[in-house]
Fold each of these.
Amino acid sequence: MGIAIKMPALSPTMEEGTLAKWLVKEGDEVKSGDILAEIETDKATMEFEAVDEGKIGKIMVAEGTEGVKVGTVIAEMAGEGGEAAAPKAEESAPPAAPQAAPDAPRKAESGTAKLAAEVKATVQDPAIPEGTEFVKTTVREALRDAMAEEMRKDERVFVMGEEVAEYQGAYKVTQGLLDEFGPRRVIDTPITEYGFAGVGTGAAMGGLRPVIEFMTFNFAMQAIDHIINSAAKTNYMSGGQMRCPIVFRGPNGAASRVGAQHSQNYGPWYASVPGLIVIAPYDAADAKGLMKAAIRSEDPVVFLENELVYGRSFDVPKLDDYVLPIGKARIMKLGKDVTLVSYSIGVGVALEAAETLAGEGIDAEVIDLRTLRPLDTDTVLESLKKTNRIVVVEEGWPTCSIASEIAAVVMEKGFDDLDAPVLRVTNEDVPLPYAANLEKAALIDAARVVEAAKKVCYK
Amino acid sequence: MAKPTTPRASSAKAQAAAPAAGADHNRPRPETPTDYEASKEELLEFYRQMVLIRRFEEKAGQLYGLGLIGGFCHLYIGQEAVAVGIQSALKPGKDSVITGYRDHGHMLAYGIDPKVIMAELTGREAGISRGKGGSMHMFSVEHKFYGGHGIVGAQVSLGAGLGFAHKYNDDGGVCVAYFGDGAANQGQVYEAFNMAELWKLPIIFVIENNQYAMGTSVNRASSEDQLYRRGESFRIPGLQVNGMDVLAVRGATEEALKWVQGGNGPILLEMKTYRYRGHSMSDPAKYRSREEVQSMRDNSDPIEGVKKYLIEAGVSEDEIKVIDQDIRKTVSEAADFAETSPEPDMAELYTDVLVEQY
């Protein structure tokens, strides 16, 4: 009996090739690793090595033959003295019988299946009991409180980043954490974004719950490989076996007069990546409730804060454990004439615009998306049914933006509810300039939102 | 131009990095390792594992040729002594391991079932990643094998993170992060070195120097081509080891473990090794001569090396043949399993993107 030597596939795309040259002849003894032939693929000339030991029997395809299909038998080889059955691929080619029971492919248990509960329909913000005290809290403090509460609850949670410990945070978001939790759990890193994003991701794979602070998300571009390739794709690539529960957080978007390299909204970038959760809250209560949810999530989370709102104060319910659902938008203001959809700092702009519009007889509904991935399109579409008009307000570039995404979703799923085209109010399509007047001109403001809202209301 | 590709064949199989002039000479250093003194049973096990890797990889190459394995497929043939020597010194379930895309050998050496590895290569439901990872993306959390990473160098920072977790949990485990001579030029490797030493993380960095980063030889890509010195400016000591000799590898690993477990922080092992096959299956390997490869096969083959030790230890050719046949059977069964297992169910397309539902 002989072993069939078949035309090999020698590149991911090869379907056929030229058998350029035989380097053995009939009757030659070959051993594993010997070159049998040279084969021209679609990319290069490759040497084709013997896998098994034996004697070359008949050569079936002559050298110089073009267009030899992958899998064609090109020669036959006599096996190794016929003793130990050398593995022969073709022996198993026609699967004679279904696999015997012990060999049956194991039905791996999906990691997702274990945790997945049918919760989507019931996800709502937790009810706040009547009589709950509300405390004026800055977004900065709310984020810190969320981290501290989760660190008290779960020993696996730690905070790592540049200046998070002794300096108390470049933007003071981690203030006091070192004092309470010590240097084991609040860790200053060198300036080494790619490295510490990788360390955090590896620690998450190893079972910890890292909260990785980027001083700003502009610097996370040096680390985006780990966020996307290492963190976001792991659960899928491992068939649900290896999780990566990590939070990457820090300020995102334009700050004030810091120029183009320090002023960019990465919401749309991360929101385009399957495997990531992307959260971008506006007020302090949402910042707290969603940060707690992010830390508890089994999935990697990109948590986009905004430097300009860190210092703003909002009412936060005084509850022991205020956790909000990820992936659920919030209606900030009810209205019936036009829907203003926004997130992060844009929500403040939209609310300001809504106030102006109210004075002009237009009742705007304001939606804070809060989570950018997964996007709560249901809430947007429900609102559209009522108002029939949508303006998306986004502090970020217009091209391939969250606004573009909302416009696409609304067209696909809410076309019949539209009485006007969806309009996008976004930053200008330029790198952010430094000069005060130019910077102002490049960024969204309430006046532009008012103008767009009037336009879709045909007023 | 050409550096000697043959590992130093002196009796001292490992070389410790000498402290650079002006460096702190009083700094403690690991001892120069000696070859591991393996029992006959251990030698037999080394042999068995190395032959398993070789035959498995040959089979994978064959299945690739038949179109049953797609995409990229990087074979470990020639480097077997590295994974087998190191893995044999680790405690499964306690120590963690991470590597790059040339990962089949490490998994086999860590005792992961060849069937589920091969089935992953053929993209089947029974594959270790349910067919969704492929050759470069395989993991076994159960074995503390953390991949299988396709981005060159990423595993080094991730490995530092695994080391961080060992230290954070104070579980006594050590991480071994393997990477190649090519990855040794990635910036993040040095970011990881810096933090690992700064925080005294329990991690062994292993450079598998197989002499070629794809088609670029070490001395065409590395200003310091003695890669065991690459940790020096971070105060990470380095040892250069004959990666073609499983006993030298194991001996150096023992020394490295002693160093790391002694709370001294990381250590760097440069394993001088060689891959016989192309970088991936689609590599025509025109950057080196046939003679160079043949000379390594003839003079430094790690499996032939162990075979010699076995015969010296009184193991008969017949006993060895029985192992060979047994391995061929195992690999053949793995291939059959991988070929006949069904592809993933279409519903699998949408599973495991996220763990939770939102």
Amino acid sequence: MPETTPERPWIETPLLESASFSKICGCRVFLKLENLQPSKSFKSRGIGNFIVESIKKSSKSSDKKGEPHFYISSGGNAGLACVTASNTLGYKSTVVVPFSTKQYMIEKLKIQGADVIQHGETWFHADKYLREELLNKDSNGVYVPPFDHPDVWTGASTMVKEWESQLSIIDGGLNHHNEKTQADVVICSVGGGGLFTGLMQGLEETPNSKTKMIAVETKGADSLYQSIQAGKLVTLPGITSIATSLGAIKVCEKAFEYANKSEKVKSVVVEDKQAVKALLRFASEEGMIVEPACGATLAIAYENQLKDLIPNLNKDSKVVLVVCGGSAFNLGLLEEWKTTYA
Amino acid sequence: MTVMPLTPPSEPSLELDMKNGSVQDPDYPYPCPWIETPLLESPVLSKLAGCKIFLKMENFQPSGSFKSRGIGNLVRTAVEKAPSDTPLHFYASSGGNAGLACVTASTTLRQKSTVVVPFTTKPAMIKKMIDAGATKVIPHGNTIADADLYLRENLLPKDPFGIYVPPFDHQDIWNGAQTLIEECYKELNNEKPDHIVCSVGGGGLLIGICQGLDNISKKQSKQFSPHSFNLQSQSRKETQVIGVETIGCESFYKAIKAKSLITLPGISSIATSLGCVRIAKKALEYGLRSNVHSTLVSDKEAIEACIEFAEDHKVIVEPACGATLALIYSGRLQQVLKVKQDDKMVLVVCGGSNISVEMMYNWKKEFDL
């Protein structure tokens, strides 16, 4: 039975075939429900794996130190994933967040068992305090990077094998070549690019992979799209999108490499309004509340942009939407945005 | 934290009655109209309840509610029994989840389906039935009883291939609902939960759960030798079943108090999916057992639970389902039974499509939450 274990502080998430999305897109659309992860987002995989690997390294290392203590400067989904995974595995964690962090996110971090310290006006100040004041003074301290680390990517990559197995089972077993069923298209949102890089890595491990990838960002947080247009890594001057979880001013280099070299990747940008409309519709039709960052992916399917992005899709084509989840959203905001955007 | 993907289970370690279970045998020609749903541990609710809370996420069923199991099994069994290639047509009278489950299951099994809905049915619900592949959705009558009468007198007699789909009072429905507890048993590493909480409308779900628990106990007592007393007594611990209703549709609660079936004069709760004036006879039989408990929550508590659940778990459910969650959120659990910290309690998140974000806002205002 799949369960969180010392090797894996995340879960195998369900893959649901969606009748309503399939009808809109004219092909078979599946939802990979990463919003059901223990931390409510896909970050449980990447950051969970980083923490597992750090624990392994520390138990192997010859100088006998104490147990690792995990530090992260994120009041968002990465922070929640770090705290949830540390707690599941029985390790301590500390989160430093800027004063601007919403109180209910701080409560969520605390209920999972973290020390939460509020410091500084911006993320930059919080991170600086974490590194200089806390990490430097703790010989057992481990800094947890939100997205730019191979262990994070490897954790995210586990999703690929999962959906390939699930698609095979839905199709009634392995195909006549004894291969698992691949998705024709996968759609995911891109922030710092950790999820995207992980999925590309996972797809590389599949023999004869034919899966195409649509990487979605919102306008104002489109660091990958801008980089591809420029042919080099671009640092955005700032983030102007409401999809703050996608708000990395620069994607990781590996994400840019994958997107730039592969013909299988399409980078697209949607407006905030499209992302919000999609998440409002998702809440009403599917009964799940997700962040605008996740709404960006849903918008591609709701607006049926698929057929333009990937020609030759037919009714049997299989499309996986990564419902990446996220906690930085609630009913109150839903209500507020409904009047602003819908 | 546990989860099962929507995939067939691995080998059951216990020989459960899998004919009606969710095993997808590739050689079995009738697709299963329901899925194995995830069982998720909830740190927030565990903290509130003082024991380990697991959520059985029936809201992810193809029809949006647990009804996919019971009604799905009834439809599937009918198709299985009919000579092959008989074009069956399934008829349900329902303005809600039973109708949607009937249509969804019929479509999965490539059969026709017609739902007669009372005029009060919301357009969004009718649209969902049509989207799910209903052959016809016919609005008729002011109440579900009127709709049902029309169906039985005007539609069914005219269709030689017509099959009536009752909402809850049928053995095939209970057999389908039973698969829920079989799944929980596996997901909890072949252990029965200490407690299981579900909402009660007509009682189909509660009957299925009790029936399933009985079957597991029977199989277990066969498995253990008479010498392993310890194991035996442990495995034979009786699961406490708690049926929750809202005040205003407490047909189960009243029947247990009176020790006989009671017909309510009407329904006065917003949890319309629980709005059944008379429960199934079998539900009363189980309800009189010492391990089965009946309890009530107010509409306000149910709505409050829906709102809190949406904040904590990002999932929107209808008040009928909120009633189960309210047992924990309202703190009423203590009035029903004492729990220990290591106890495992399953809450059946029964789902339901009769909800929208707008409805939640309106209730939020109405109840001043």
Amino acid sequence: MSDTPSELKYTKTHEWARLDDGTVVVGISDYAQDALGDVVFVELPVVGDDVKEGEEVAVVESVKAASDIYSPISGSISQVNELLDEQPELLNSDPYGEGWIFTISPTDSDDYEELLDSNGYDEFCSSEEHEN
Amino acid sequence: MDNNQTIFDISRPNRFAGAQIPEMGSLSDIPLHFLRDSSPCLPEVSEIQAIRHYTNLSHQNFAIDRNFYPLGSCTMKYNPRGAHRAANQPGFLNRHPLTSVETSQGVLQCLFELQEILTNVTGMDAVSLAPMAGAQGELAGLLMIRAYHESQGEAHRDEIIVPTAAHGTNPATATMSGYKVAETKVGADGDVDLEHLKQVVGPQTAGIMLTNPSTCAVFERQIVEISKLVHDAGGLLYYDGANLNAILGKVCPGDMGFDVLHLNLHKTFATPHGGGGPGAGPVAVNGRLVPFLPIPIVGQRNNQFEWFGSDEIPNSIGTMSAFMGNTGILIRALSYALMLGREGMIRVAEYATLNANYLAKELEKAGFKLAYPDRKATHEFLITLSDETAKFGIRAMDFAKRLLDFDIHAPTTYFPLLVPECFLIEPTETESKEQLDAFVHAMSTMRMEAQTNPRQLLDAPHHQYRKRLDEVKAARELDLTWQPKSKKTAQTK
């Protein structure tokens, strides 16, 4: 069973988000890193770019596949985790900590509250598995 | 002998076999300033050492000529030796691409006949053999779609639709052709989600790229509705020919409403495949795209076969290579088509689907889970090993590695991504029932090992030249350039 911390918010495309002093930190869930397998490359977004909710902003490449990372909310990219250039494996070893991908200054901070909570995300993951 | 030795490791200074070295005289017309002044860093070995080294390397190949190769979506079928023999005739082999049309009537006639056969079997109006691979065929196809919309004053159409389960080349080709990619969802039964497609299609749609049978290994049943939906919106339909083997001679892409398609001759028409080609990806089009076909095309004029180029096809999207694709491969494909004949081609599709359905049912009986149990297999099918992963901690990748120990090449793994821990299995029409049964036996044995002796799978392969490779290291620290340990060898000469 994958780890889904209850203090975080989630998307159906398997990103997590955490509100941290007005900005939102984004990464991929434990479920996502497990499904992807060993991550070998992360293409980071560009700081300062304005992005919309659901827009492709980064790419995570594993030994199995390359997958797009979608922005959970609209806003402007404020920071990227440059550690991932050298250590993409942080996404596997510490998806909710050192494996964060980028931070975003939200256009509207209410958007964050509308994301899935951990229960909703767990339910979504098990229904998705059930479908297959 | 040590299998990890490179030819440079067995090299010794001044050991060489000179019998086949060309005389220096033949180099005399090369200007002096183009000649290097130091010796190249070449291995120095005897003839028998060279022969053994490369023969031993060839034994490490996992190839269709040695082993069963059920690699889904790749159609690794037997390459008939008769086709090689035909293409290896000196007249074909030694012909220079700039040879005059008058003395090239034989090869031109071969290409012309292949154009005709492919036009016929796809139900389209014309074919260009120019593209040199499937991906280049896709590029040619989308550039023709672009040229068509521009000719209609509809250059504003800037979106190509692809299903979420599509081959990775489809969105890549769309992007290469300057289009934006819009994804349409695939439903739980493996067919395109028609309701979602309705929301994605619009005045911005240039076209849709589909594979049918789809990448989910099922026949897209709503193809007529999809065709109408996209055409009504002014878009065109592109057929990715990767899975043509299932319907060859049975169903024409033209009849399904497609406007343009590419054929992977190196899959469907049994030409050598793997390790980078050489491929051939001819494109077939219906009437509205004929003016834009890539050149050259072989045409007939005054009872003679001729190259048709920009004079005859002024609106062509242009050339795809310096000459005429991989001609040797095209001749193999023609030989294969002629050996089969019209009835033989239908048998290809029938046996390919029969083998796949037999294998799918036998695996299901053996306790494996089909990804789409309610659907008939096409020429290939998907199983999901997610139960084995959950119960025994053994992933599809472990099964794939262990399968090599049974002298079977692993099927395609982890594609399409929407089916977890999957195998995409394509036995092809050229395999016997005994071989298919051996595959089921290997799978069942592995399933038993997963319960009783999981290390057998986790550490596999055990009986190959190479053990489990570190794929993560290979991807993160890709290093394809061999560097000599010392350049002494080169300097002593």
Amino acid sequence: MTVAAHSQQVAGAPATSGRRVAGALLHDRAAVLSSAFLALIVLMAICAPLISAITGHGPNDFDTAAVNTDLGGVPHGSLGGIGAEHPLGVEPQNGRDILARIAYGARVSLLIALAATALTTLLGVVLGMLAGFYQGWADQVICRVMDFLMAFPALIFMIAILSSLPQGNRSVLLVVVISVFGWPYLARVVRGQTMTLANREFVEAARASGASTGALVFKEILPNLRSSLIVMTTLAVPGYVGTEAGLSFLGVGVAPPTPSWGQMIASSVGWYAVDPMYFAIPGTFLFLTVLSLTVLGDRLRAAFDSGEAA
Amino acid sequence: MARYLAGRAAGVVLILFLVCLFTFVIFFTLSPDPAVMICGKTCTPERIDQIRDVLGLDEPFLAQFFGFLAGIFAGRDYGAGANLVHCAAPCLGYSFQTNQSVWDMVVERLPVSATVAVGAAVLWLFLGIVAGLLSAVKEGTWWDRAAMGLALGGSSVPNYVLALALQYVLVVQLQVLPFPQAVAFSDGPALWFQSYLMPWLVLATGYACLYARLTRANVIDTLAENFMRTARSKGLSPALTMRRHALRPALTPIATIFGMDFAALLGGALITETVFGLNGVGKMAADSIAKNDQPVIMAVTLLAAFFVVIGNVVVDLVYTRLDPRVRITAR
Amino acid sequence: MSELLVVEDLTVTFPTTRGPVDVVKDVSFTVGRDETVGIVGESGSGKSMTSLAIMGLLPRGATTRGSIRLDGTEVLGASARELRRLRGDRMSMIFQDPLSSLNPYYTVGLQIEELYRAHRGGSRAAAREVVTGALRQVGLPDPERRARHYPHQFSGGQRQRIMIAMALVCSPSLLIADEPTTALDVTVQAQILRLLADLRGQSGMGMVFITHDLAVISSIATRVLVMRRGEQVEYGTAEQVFAEPRHDYTRMLLDSIPRIDDPLDEVSA
């Protein structure tokens, strides 16, 4: 009798806790600010063509009038060419509009980060639950693979693979490579939680009452992993935004002329002394995006944790 | 104990073998023919065949792979007759670009990476733990909020952005540091210190922020433990209560994380070394990747994996000394 | 005769988001030398907060009113230094869960030794002698060797014996035992209870015994204080309280004790 009551209570928890977490976040200034900034970035990414249409500059349109060819291509004006014509200035030498490149770059960064997070989560949850639920040899094999991948010098290897692969569709390759090295960190947590959940009384009760494995996994275990999954994936996104930018910075990310924030920062390395805005603007966007995502993940975790304690 | 160590050693060898194999397979199947690359633009088919023959590139995959492995343990010979070159025992082959012995390149550059890693580690451990401790003790005060806000911000700055910003402020605007360049210790300790200061700062920032947050969380958790209540109920001095009863349980988990982070850094801080032009293993990795210099890529991948795996074992062994509850048992 | 511990109108208040809450309200009782007073109540009744107030160990933010005097010394409002001198020396406390109450990183010998040396000073070698004696006194076999072991290497009952040895190493005049047997097996519970009663009888100290279990109190306490929701609902000698409880709540607690002479079907109902 008590077992049934317990499982009912657990099953009923997520719906109310979702509303409670949302409420807690709405009362948190940092969380609201972060969400607002992220909404702005997403909007910018979606409306990139619109922004180009309004300013009249595409991401790859050269504007030699905006740079001083006599001074080696430094933008006219004091702040890297910021003005009515180019709200965020232009690139040195070729005069490409930075606002347009930031907006199109946001598309690339966010798409890759979100896709990598989705793939990582899928791999991590499936393999982690397999290992935790069946244990035995499946667990052994999956754990060895995780040990192996985590011992791997991932960054060096990602760069090596990406540099030797054909140019092809770099974005897809990036997502795959990032996910292959990223899933063990999530799977390790999922495995541990599945193991404890599988031995909890309400799962045992469901098993004793003849529930199928599928029903056990989807109705009893997965809903209980939900809050930690939300937190882990939110905290994974900023990591992948950073990884994508880092790989592009090192020249093995998305191939030019497709703009990406990391690539923009990489090309500004030679110019930081004469045109600091060139690295400051993409650098600031990258920093604020990563920060917002981290803050949001952090606050989500705090909100979930305080719910568990109550 | 001996059995445990033997088991761990076998695990280390197995993982390193797999890393080798995996890397070898990827390059064998994916990358362009190295013989063509070495040969350059003015090239004849005969010359390419000769290069293939000398490097053993015409042999089947397994022969090449085991040739490489044998080279590491026993050394190997390239070519034959008058062209014979012997590569002594830890043989990682020769760079396709410079014809230098890869082992010599690694030995030459490892001290630079170690200097970067050690200096940064000292900085981040000190800053991170002190800030985290203060925040935990003053939980909820303005200092705590400010320090943790800063830590959250600091861990969100990609290190190449920080590197550029620091260079702009310290070198271009304030002119307190010279333009970054590789300086040996023998060129003068002051100059050497100046040249490493920015790399240390850049590398240490992210870790210091992370460690500050970890330390704070661990100390707060420990202060809430029942044994802290016992320590207070015993009438011990606050200093002894904090130092003996709170710090050791709170900092022990950080020691293990530090071991892993530090080991990973010994394999080269790729981005930092590249940005500041330091000739360490990380920059070597970036350069070799850019030029598809396979023997060097193999070597840096293996070296980095070696440090991570060894670091893992060392951390586990040290942990048994730090936490009396953990005892070594052979699996 | 003068009482050892006098608690008068003790009120403990916690600040919460919904305003201050009194977790202990106007509680008064006394503990004589050579006497055991039991405090009974369910969890959240304020019994543990009362004991923490006596020890000066209330969580940060808690405020107190009233008076607590140990041997004539006022404990409420005493300086941190004075409190430290009292704690462990003149009054000691043992807790519910001995495993989490001992620091896992240090040997049990060191954890007793540091308490002794904090109050009595002296060399480590001398302190170690005392520790061995204290461990022997609580019935731990082979105390010299066992002092070098860590908490996780002992059984639950042994750990509570170690906690008792620690609490008594400076021969305090007051021992507060906060649910000392709740986390233990039933057979071990009886052993620990007997040990506590024996040691208290030998040393002639006063003891405050906190529990939710009236059956335990009946075997050990001379006076009983029943608490509910921070308030004291009943206070008197054990005979009085058990024979003619004045409050409904006490009667309910008494009724819930299973008795050997109860018919079986009533117990399972």
